[in-house]
Amino acid sequence: MRDTIYALASARGRAGVSVVRISGPRAWVACRALCGDVPEVRRASVRNILWNGQVIDQALVIAFAEKASFTGEDSVEFHLHGSPAVLSAVLSALSAQEGLRAAEAGEFTRRALENGRLDLDQVEGLADLIEAETEAQRRHAMGLMQGRLRQMADRWHESLVRAAALIEATIDFVEEDVPVDVVPEVVELTSAVLTDLRAEVRGFDAAERLRDGFEVALVGRPNAGKSTLLNALAGREAAITSTIAGTTRDVIEVRMSIHGLPVTVLDTAGLRETEDEIEKIGIGRTVDRAAAADLRVFLLDGADVPLVAPQPGDLLVRGKADLAVGEGLSVSGKTGQGLPELIDAIGAALDSRMASAATINRARHLEAVSRAIRALESARSEVTAGSSRVELAAEQFRQAIRALDSLIGRVDVEDLLDEIFSSFCIGK
Fold this sequence. Notes:
This protein is of the alpha/beta class. It has helices at about 25-35, 85-95, 105-115, 120-130, 135-145, 150-170, 185-200, 205-210, 225-235, 275-290, 340-355, 365-385, 390-405, 415-420; strands at about 5-10, 15-25, 45-50, 55-65, 75-80, 100, 215-220, 250-260, 260-265, 295-300, 315-320.
């Protein structure tokens, strides 16, 4: 018999309510041991939680039947008062029962996958949802959770199975006259799928950035006001400000949300020629990080910024707008003048990159789609090369189908599961 697992499913520490989750064949047995009975399924009921003749807590108890729970197993949730003493007593009572053990990281979700309640792409979407910091991340994660990638993969699968079946028919009836030339339809199906897959590859960088966060570097000469601007954007004293040139020696990072997108703003060392060895190191790091950033905001003070050249799409902003009047985008970190306009400009620049963002957002997704593209390009070439190459084309179609099936966990996922679930919290 499979183990029954339990864990705290809410955050640790004092809280108004804490949730303990139990799943497995003895979940309802454990519920009876603590509550005396099992409430009607999917209907919350108040019960006293008793152990060794003592009332531990009064809790809201919800039972879920097999195949109608998150894990696909009999499950119970105890919504307890969030006292560390209450939680300790309940977890201790569960550990004393035969056949129960504490869950491992991600084990509830792993059982949901194994029992067909979730696909692998939905599991990854759940992981992204748990980690989501911004509205855009939440929306993308919910799309994966609701099966957006599976719907796409199913559509591609259906088209390629149709194309493969047409090719297989020409092999099966090679000694007979096949009444219809299948090549045009096979090429059309293949080309349509290739168009979709290439769009996913092109949009992968933006989707990955949405998941991991964009980097925006503040670049300028010493005393251009970069650190003051960073503090204004962050709403706190994240960087030391001073009238002394060269105060910022290293890259300072502040995480924030801009237009619902996750953004790390980088305050970099002022760019200038210097003999100070420590400042040189900071400037070298600035050049590297600025070049690798998704967007650079050049804070201008009337002189050219050395060492780093603006790239297409970068923002040129006049700093210290409270001290001088000029045309174009200008900002003062000290007074806040122009700050909303700068935030909107940064948001608009990043929004334009998100317009073509893909659904795939993990390295394994990209690798699977890339394998499918290579196989389909080869299959199309073999199909158009003549009837003597159809067997090779059929094999390439099988490889493409297998690659796309791996996206949602139909094949080739066992070696990925430990890595994926290690990122989950214990109670999920």
